[in-house]
Amino acid sequence: MATLALAAGAFTTTAHAADDNPTDKLRAPKGYETVSRPSQQQRIIGGTDAAFSKAPYMVQLMYNFYDDGYLYFNCGGTLVAPNKVLTAAHCIRPTSAENLDYVTDGLVLGGTSKIGGGPEDEGTASAVSRVWVHPNWNPDTLQNDIAVMTLAKPMPYTPLPMAGPDDLASYTPGTQGLTLGWGLTSGTGDQVAANLQQVLLPINGDEACTANLGQFGYDASGPMICAGQPGTGDDATGKTTCPGDSGGPLIVKGKIVGIVSWGIGNQSTGEQCNMAGFYEAFTKVATFKGAAQARVDDADLSRDGRADLFARTTTGEDWSFNSNGIGFTGKYAVSGTYSGYNVVVQTDLDRDGHQDFVGRQTSNGELHWIRRTEANATYTAVRLATGFGGYKAIIAPGDVTGDGRPDVVGVSGTGVPVVLPGNGNGTVGTLAVVGSGYDRFNAIRGHGDFTGDGKADLVAHEPASGALYLIPGTGTASAPFGEPVRVAENWKVYNVIAALGDVSGDGIADLVTRTADGNLQLHRGTGLADTGMLRAPVQAGTGFGGFNLFG
Fold first, then answer.
1. pTM: predicted TM-score of the whole model, two decimal places
2. How far, rounded to the nearest angstrom, does the alpha carbon of residue 397 sit from its chain's CA centroid?
3. Which residues are catalytic?
4. 438/1 Cα distance (integer angstroms)
5. pLDDT of 152-174, one tens digit each?
6. How far is 61 from 71, CA to CA, in rounded Å?
7. Reduced 3-state DSSP string for 48-101
């Protein structure tokens, strides 16, 4: 976590230490536990050892700070999907002038409670393919201290979900939260903990947090919470986070409610944490659920964080068109053949970071999961379900049931919506009817979150009026969709509506349409849930009149 130095009155970011080369097994050098950046570390004070089996979601952020052949432990993080890590922005961008490039000089280590994997070389390491830092992250005020890292390969460990707007009861003052991390063994020391530490901290109310930390910039309007007992100044009695626990989670009821962010230190005395009388500040995850979840769900065909277009010509050629944020450029042949399918929609059904497809066979109405793996770039088809030949819509919007696993949605020929709940491994559970009344719509689509609340939504076109409707996601398994809301008029001019996800890369789902002249239009989402949901369309491609399937 970062510390606010009383003497200087200025924020200084902190980190932890660990090291190794970017291989699947980390090899800590002899005397590893003392390899550190002493002014940039901290650990949980007053905690106990945490076994990996109790915290399989915990990972270590490793970075080559000195170009000396070693990777140093910098921060903690939490797996929120097999290939996604939630952490603090200051672990990535410590100051306005310093940006750590984890793609070229870092990796993430999971699968171990021992720092650096210990002498037994425990754990699994993954390179980092891209990093998202909240666009409004402010290193001076520590506002919006949240980031999401995308791993080059998924990790086989259990992730944790993020708390959202529906979890505000978890922030009730007095609620006990569990926080975990690696770091110093003393608030004034310079040795890291050899094993993951854990401690329970009570969540404090905003009024108490403001009174305690307001003079240092604590913001009670939503981006921050504070937790813990007041610091004691004594390692023997304190229970608190310290610099280096940065990026780790604060957990309530099995969800991440906070990210270790900052605390108070005193440069003149060398105290880095557990300052007498002060609480510790955390990023309030529920405030940022929508923005962060969009990055967790941003798998796409080119793996650059922007949703791409799959399209098939009337002669049976399958192509992928890469998004550049405002349109589609480049045409790439997609491996496999899709001539036998009359529906193809993109999804990452097993959450491994590779965009897959759900397709419906024309001949028999079977649904297939068409997937690729890390080892094999060729797509193969596995049967998911049967009996979907008469359905007017097959959709893969993401997680609609609230369990963190992508689902498949269908709308029958009579307008009845159903859900095939995803199991997180490419299979689906038992079909469930989840509503009625969609017979008035001739096109129902969806991929991602249009309203910014972290829940997958649908859109639907009503041919009688030509209006477009938002069908908001609720995140509830028994009733995953709310009442349709009319959001746009005059959509009869489009003969194709495709929901690909976040085409622009801003974290909000967008729509793509085609006009009669074969031109594509991009309708960027705004995050609103009313008539302002979509920006004015812009041309995103030409010459698409000869395509008959989009997904």
1. 0.88
2. 15
3. 90, 145, 246
4. 49
5. 989 999 999 999 998 999 999 99
6. 9
7. EECCHHHCCCEEEEEECCCCCCCCEEEEEEEEEECCEEEECHHHCCCECCECCC
